[in-house]
Specification:
The protein is 57% helix and 2% strand. With 161 residues, the protein is mainly α. It has a single domain, classed as Globins (Globin-like, Orthogonal Bundle).
Length: 161
């Protein structure tokens, strides 16, 4: 049984990545761990110059929805389109994206020690998502991102929807 009361599947995996990251509390810890690194990093700190503590919560709520938890990002924070809009005009380059992925790898290892299986599943999502964020970040603020569809869902074997 996991800390949040859900049963683990025989493989040692819960019914969703959300279960295995220990729900919203685990994602808050991961976000805290990650952004502590980002804000101290000479490559990424300038990209996050307008960072606020609210960002941590929004990231955790987004990831909860993506990994199979409650759809609160869509219900309260504008869904997939709002997430894309938040990246407009940032101008991420390849060095930013690579460093972001390195710091996330480290944050996952610290938050979920010894869980290389979980790290691999999460990093598959983060690599995919960081590529989209980098592309969108090249567009100026106010760009119409169209209708990107619902918030993507991610499982142990990749994108579900």
């Amino acid at each position: 049984m996991t800390d949040n009361g859900s049963e683990l599947a025989p493989t040692g995996r819960g019914t969703s990545l959300y279960d295995d990251v220990e729900g919203l509390d685990g994602l808050r810890r991961l976000s805290d761990n990650f952004y502590d690194r980002v804000l101290a990093d000479p490559i990424l700190a300038p990209v996050f110059v307008d960072f606020t503590p609210t960002h941590l919560e929004h990231v955790a709520v987004w990831l909860a929805e993506v990994f199979g938890g409650p759809a609160d990002f869509t219900a309260r924070l504008g869904g997939h389109q709002a997430l894309l809009h938040s990246h407009l005009g940032i101008g991420m380059n390849d060095a930013h994206r690579q460093r972001w992925l390195e710091l996330m790898t480290d944050a996952i290892a610290d938050t979920y020690p010894g869980r290389t299986d979980l790290s691999a599943a999460l990093m598959t999502y983060f690599d995919w998502g960081a590529a989209i964020a980098q592309d969108v970040s090249q567009e100026p603020v106010g760009t119409d991102v169209g209708e990107p569809g619902p918030t993507p869902r991610w499982g142990w074997d990749g994108q579900i929807s």
